[in-house]
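User: Hello! I'm new to structural biology and keep hearing that structure can be predicted from sequence alone. Could you demonstrate with Peptide chain release factor 3? Please show me the input and the output so I can see what each looks like.

Assistant: Of course. The first part below is the input, the amino acid sequence of Peptide chain release factor 3. The second part is the output, the predicted structure written as tokens.
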Amino acid sequence: MMQNLTNEVAKRRTFAIISHPDAGKTTITEQLLLFGGVIREAGTVKAKKSGHFATSDWMDIEKKRGISVTSSVMQFEYQGKRINILDTPGHEDFSEDTYRTLMAVDAAVMVIDSAKGIEPQTKKLFKVVKKRGIPIFTFMNKLDRDGREPLDLIAELEDLLGIEGVAMNWPIGMGKGLKGLYDIANHRIELYRAEAADKYLELDEDGRLSEDNPLTKESIYDDTLGDIELLHEAGNTFDAAKVAVGDQTPVFFGSALTNFGVETFLEQYVKIAPSPDSHEVTLANDDKEELAADDEQFAGFVFKIQANMNPAHRDRIAFVRICSGEFEKGIDVTLARTGKSIRLNNATEFMSSERVQVSNAVAGDIVGLYDTGNFQIGDSIYSGKRKVEFQELPQFTPELFMQVTAKNVMKQKSFHKGMQQLVQEGAVQLYRNYQTDDYILGAVGQLQFEVFQYRMLNEYNSEVVMTPIGSRVARWIDQSQLDPKMSSSRNLLVKDRFDQPLFLFENQFALRWFADKYPDVQLHAKL
Ligand code: GDP
């Protein structure tokens, strides 16, 4: 057992980066990994090019990244802290995956393109994080380009997201006129594109440079001092309690591409970002309790399952967020859903570009368990006798549906295997026609189907034929109220993977028509 679990847990910083595509998430992640010594040169985390996000990119990105899909979790040490960055897929069709990952972090970093401000995907993801009540940090990126006024960007946080922004540093100029950052938190000026030795300039007690510095002769310097004064008088003041619950966001400026301001951000981040907090759990008697992160009992939940991370090994990994205690190789745990006891001999952590066997993982860390089919997304596991179950992960009701069959009837085996595994991963949802048992897939976005098809072929050598059913409104019906005769082409009757019946209505109109015809039947939007 670890000597001082409390101290170890306090070192953890586990977060995800949320942003709209192209805001610079990949570029920043790469810079952070550089500081963490995980990669040695930029370009290792292959950025997807702007524009269309094609299906083939999905796998190509993962391949070219080198750190591969393991980049789902990136772990490194920085200034005595252990950082875990959980990657979230950028495309909105994979929002389900992203939302689940956001349940496994202790904070979020929101990257905003300073020329574009808050974009739709950022707003959506922000809402999810906000609901969790965890700290949110903001990085205003692309300062090397002409962007919007910094004051304007801060105001937008409040206007569009309803969160107070508190500036930790402030740009001195922008675009071609970018001179540096006025670093409020560190009481210094950081020069843009300066040699390391001349990078930082001291500020006097009044927050000014000494008069003989050439920067003081430039008008942008006076403008910046004017802004700083305005921030002092009218801006928000840093309030740790507000930050902790996500009512205030510390704002950092920088340019990830030119590696400016990212390390300054990281330094502050490890200081003020939270270490793992307690989690609410349900006990065997249905009582709720807060399970402290440094409780000796090991407990965690599966937030992601990924098959074939390494096609050569055909493995399947369940990602577990440790919420309390310490993970040790060979630990015996109980799977709360089934009560089954499992010895965890084979686990991996995600330090650096290699997957390595777990040495010491504690609350806040993520471990990958080699899985032979024991785990499902959302599963809780725990050591010892006391049963603990974590909150359910959010479930999405699919809106798009496809009928799917194997092209080659001789290859049913690989078809079924691929289907089963990808469904367990949560890549798509599986339904079956109530009468014919035909497979029907459900997804939130079209791209999920395309990736499914691509992966079936590449990972399971199974060519699938997909017939679009189109957009449908899914409604569950109680088994006792079901009469198969209620089904028609406008409300297709299917069953989900728990064999629960539901109708896929052609549209809202068909749903209303049904409700009028069967007023006593209760329909539910979720299982
Ligand atoms: P993601 O989609 O959020 O992961 O964004 P990327 O990191 O892939 O960046 C999208 C594009 O913006 C790429 O062409 C980057 O080179 C570029 N980019 C990222 N950060 C900056 C920056 O600070 N300044 C400029 N000018 N471009 C940037």
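User: So the tokens describe the shape?

Assistant: Right, they're a compact way of writing down the 3D structure. Reading them back into a model, for example: Residues 219-234 form the longest helix (16 residues).
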